[in-house]
Amino acid sequence: MASIPDAPVPAESTDLSTYPTTTLQQIGFFIIFFFPALALLVVSLRVYSRFSARTFGWDDGFIVAAMITALAEASCSYVMMKLDFIGVHTWQIPPVPPTERPWSQVWSYLVIMLYNPQLGFVKSSVLFFLLRIGGHKPGIRWSIHALNVCNILLMISVFVASVFTCVPINKYWDRGVPGHCNNEGLQYIVSSSITVLTDILVVILPIRIVVGLQMPMRLKMGLTFVLTLGIVVTIVSILRLIWLIDYHYGDLFQNPDFSYDIRFVYSSVECNLAIICASIPALSSLLKRWFPHFFANLTKTSGGRRTFFFRHREGDNRTAVTSSDQFQTSSHVIRTFGGGTIVVKDLPASPLSGSYPCSPLYLQPRGDGGESDEEGVLFDIYNIRKTTKFDVSYNDAGSVRSGDLARSASKFRYQQSMSALSSE
């Protein structure tokens, strides 16, 4: 192989354009900027959707924190790749010992500090989102809280361990300073392994939640697919773990062209894919607004009928009711997920009585103007109940105010209302 003259660039030049580069390194630059840009677009749509619906919550706050950290990491990664000649052939690297290039180690240190919190922020965002859609069951709620606490404690402990990899801290980039450093390879591999484990747990939990929801199978399958997109992130995490093992304990440096390798970008891909996958489920309200017919079709069964589910208060049996002629004579109307209506018969007993056996559930956003982030979560129609308990107020002049009854007619109307209720 022909030798290429050393690049005439000082080791600590601030003009990054004078450093040698290759096509492989340029591909690495594209990756570390493309994925954050895509993640920024998705997060921006998510924030717009939540603010427009006035449903901005903890899950959105954590994802915004992760996005800010990811953008900072992208900038630091670019400088690090340049100063460390990542993706450049070894014979293009100036013959300067790493100990004389402390600034490259400073940027490497910053990248490590920014990488670890990102995944912790994303996982907390996912877990808070799961509380929104499935946190009503005590068992699932406590599982989410327990996993979130473990995630936050892991994030803090890994961050602290990374900050104090070397004591004093500046020994990390200036090995001539007296002090000591941890076994970096072992530290990074252990923390990465735990990260993969928590990734798997965060992927499994949504499946447990969706299985317990009452909805058409087509919609359930779609929701499961969206909530488990994190599997892709887990795969990238495993690839990154393999690279770390090869970098610290493998024979990577036995390769005469070891620097011609851009697997470093796994970190950027992993973090930004995590942000994207965590944000897609939260875009449901915006996507429903843009593609209403697609989401309406998700609730259709064969034959074009929509299926509704009734939850028995005693036991777990479910009864499916479809739109048919036998219900057309009733006065009760339920609005469907797709925006249509279905008429059902009078209910067997008053919701106020303890004998009422079941309550209809339908796919409809909770009451925030139809733009809730929990579209598709089953809503209990009997959260609105009829009652015989009410207050009557009067004014001195005997005139009727908005919401009041006139003194002269109040007694008659009260008796008439009670008669109507008793006749039911």
Automatic annotation (TrEMBL):
Where does the UniProt entry say this protein principally localizes?
membrane
Transmembrane regions listed in the UniProt entry: 27-49, 61-81, 106-131, 152-173, 185-211, 223-245, 265-287
Q: Transmembrane helix: is it a keyword of this entry?
A: yes
Q: Which UniProt keywords apply?
A: Membrane, Transmembrane, Transmembrane helix
InterPro entries attached to this UniProt entry: Rhodopsin_dom_fungi, SAT4-like
Membrane topology summary: Multi-pass membrane protein
Give start and end of each Rhodopsin domain: 45-289
Localization recorded for this chain is: Membrane
Q: Which family does it belong to?
A: Belongs to the SAT4 family.
Cited PANTHER family: INTEGRAL MEMBRANE PROTEIN-RELATED, PTH11-LIKE INTEGRAL MEMBRANE PROTEIN (AFU_ORTHOLOGUE AFUA_5G11245)
Q: Per its record, how is this protein called by name?
A: Rhodopsin domain-containing protein
Q: What is the lineage of its organism?
A: Eukaryota, Fungi, Dikarya, Ascomycota, Pezizomycotina
